[in-house]
Amino acid sequence: MNEVTSPWSLAASMRPGQSLYIAGGPTPPAAFIRALQENPARSAGLRITSTVAPGLPNPFDLERLAPTAVLTGPFMVREFASSPEMNAAGASDIAKPAGHFHHQPMSAGGFLRHLKEQTFDLGVIQVAPPDANGRCSLGPGVEFLPVALQRCRRLVAVVNPQLPFLPQTAWVPASALEAVYEDADARHDDAGALPDTDTAGEAPTDTIGRLIAGLIEDGSTIQLGHGAIPVATAGHLHSHQQLRIHAGLTSDALMHLADAGALDAAGRHRVAAVIGSTRLRPWLADADNLQVVGYAEILSPAALASLQRFVAVNPACEVDLFGQCDLGHLSADPVTGAPEAPDFARAARNCADGLSIVALRATTNDTLPRSRIVPALRADSAISIPRIDVDVVVTEFGVADLRNASVHERAQALISVAAPPFREDLARAWAERARRL
C-alpha cells in the first residue's frame, strides 16, 4: 500500500466527467460514499457504476448527489424508483436537485460483458486487512469485482477490520492499491460488518421450501439465493447427501446445509457473494471448501457445462399462465431484480438431469390479497425468465410441472397451484385467451 489517506480527501479530489466503479453487493465502501455525499459539489458530473441491490447495504442517497451525477447498476432498486431515469413522469424534471439512477436491465452475464467494454478512472473497493503475504481479501462480496477492477486506471481501498479474511476468496495485492484508508466507524461499531438479514419464513414459505426439497436428488448441484424461500428450502434438505453449491448471492442456507452434513465434504462449493446472520461471519472464515469468486468464474460456459444435476431455485414476483416470470415487479411497483437468475435458469434447463425451479407465494400480503399467478403479465411488467427456461413453478399449493407440456397444459398446471379463491377467474381468463391462440 503506497499511502494512507482519508475518504474525505479522496471525495474532495473528484472532478466532473470522471468515471468510478464503486463496489456494491454486501460490502460497499460506505465511508467513501458518505464522504462523497456530504457535499453535492463533490459528485458533480460523476459517472458512477455500482451493484447496489435490494436487500443489501445501500449507502447511496440520490437526494444527496449532484443533479448531474449518474449512478448506473444492473439491479432495480425501490429507493431509486422516483429517479427521473426510472420515472417517465419525472423525466423532464432536469432541475430536480438529485442524482439520476440509470438502471441497466441486464443479466449477470450481460453485465460482465458490459464491464469488459468500459474503462473507469477510479475503482473504490472494501477489503479485509492484508495477510502476512500482502494479500487483501475481497471478503464475502466478490461479485463482479475481478472483471471491473481490471478496467480501473486507479484503485483505492477501504480497509474494514471487521471483514473476515476468507482464505479461498478472491483478493488483490496491497501493492496494487494506490491508496488505502481504514473505515474508522467499522472499528468501533458494526457499520462495516456483514449485514444481517431476516430470513424467517411463514408457514406458506416453509411449505414451498419442503416442496422444492422434494424435487432435489442427492448428489445435485444447487443454486440457492438469499431470502426466506432459499433458507426454507435448505431447512428441508438436511437429510440429503452429497449436495454441492454453485450460486451467485447466497446466505445462511449454505451454513445450515453444512451444519446438517448435507453438503459434499470433499466437494468444491463456489459462490459470488454471501450475506447473512452474525453467526455466518466466523463460519465463513473456517469454510475451507467454500470459494467466493467472481461471476466471471461462476457463469463461465465451461463451469456451467461441467455441472451435474444442476438445480436452480429462483423466487419470482409474478408468473403468468404462459410460464413467463417477472422477478422485478409486484404489481406496478419495482421490488427487486435478479440479474443472475436468467443465467442460472437457462443453465439448469440445458443441463442433463437439471431442473429450473421458480418459486413464489401464491398471493400478495396485502389487506386484500391478489393472486401472483396472473392471466398475463402487465404491459409495465418485465419478463425476467422466459417460459422456455422454466421447468417447474412451486407455490404453497403445489408443484406445476411444465416440462413437455403444451401451452394449454401449462396454463392448467399453473392454475392448479394458484390460491383456490382465484382459480375460477384464472380459468375463465385463460379460456378467453385460448380462443385467440
Task: Please give a structural write-up.
By secondary structure, this protein is an alpha/beta fold. The protein folds into two domains: 7-188, Glutaconate Coenzyme A-transferase, CATH 3.40.1080; 205-434, Acetyl-CoA hydrolase/transferase C-terminal domain (Glutaconate Coenzyme A-transferase, 3-Layer(aba) Sandwich), CATH 3.40.1080. The protein is built from 14 helices and 24 strands. Helix 7 (228-235) runs parallel beside helix 8 (252-260) and helix 13 (407-416) packs antiparallel against helix 14 (420-434). The longest helix is centred in the last third of the chain and has 15 residues, at 420-434. The model is unreliable at 86-96 and 187-193 (pLDDT under 50).
